[in-house]
Amino acid sequence: MWQVEGFLSFNVHLVVSNNNFRKEMEGDGIEHRRVEVNGIKMHVAEKGKGPVVLLLHGFPELWYSWRHQIVGLSSLGYRVVAPDLRGFGDTDAPSSVSSYTMLHLVGDIVALINSLAVDRIFLVAHDWGAIIAWPRNPKMKPVDLMRAMITTEILTSAWTGAKVKVPVKFIIGDLDLVYTSLGMKDYIESAFKKDVPNLEQVVVQEGVGHFINQEAAEDVTNHIYHFINKYFHVTST
């Protein structure tokens, strides 16, 4: 049985060939494979040995969004794993819309983690990937979903009110439209702690927009490393 050791979040059907991205990264030693998970074949990019850091991309992204962190964190003593989520990149894209429920997406990640055969992982997620990584609210019943309006919120309604109970670091760019939306700054700086009891730090990266792991790649890699290394105590290679 594995456990999530910590969670680092970046604010909240794309089929693109990975061939060009793989060629670009050939000299960096990133390995690619396909894993049977939850009834589909999932493409995974990974590099390094040591404690596992699992990187979940957002929309519209691929594993490639984490290329800088894969190279950087693996050089610091971590095994870095970055999948293409269901329907993205070289991971299977089932034709039925019913195959893309949140339970399917979460099930894919659970199966992937099980396949890694490790006791614990550190989870880093961006955008849509952070919704998938967030724990489900056990108090939300199916009838509540039926009462919900048919909007984008219905996709995540079962997670509304759920709390992350592992150590958390949250990073967001000050130019991200989410951060600049009405009331969001106040929520992040004060009320966010109620939903994330073990929130240890909020980092607002200046001059950076939504795709923070690419726009401020080195800074983000360093933030991840210094946060997770408090728990894994890995000596860089």
TrEMBL record:
This is AB hydrolase-1 domain-containing protein. Keywords: Hydrolase. Residues 51-134 form the AB hydrolase-1 domain. Belongs to the AB hydrolase superfamily. Epoxide hydrolase family. The keyword Membrane does not apply. One of its GO terms (molecular function) is hydrolase activity. Coiled coil: none annotated. InterPro entries: AB_hydrolase_1, AB_hydrolase_fold, Epox_hydrolase-like. It comes from Psophocarpus tetragonolobus (Winged bean).
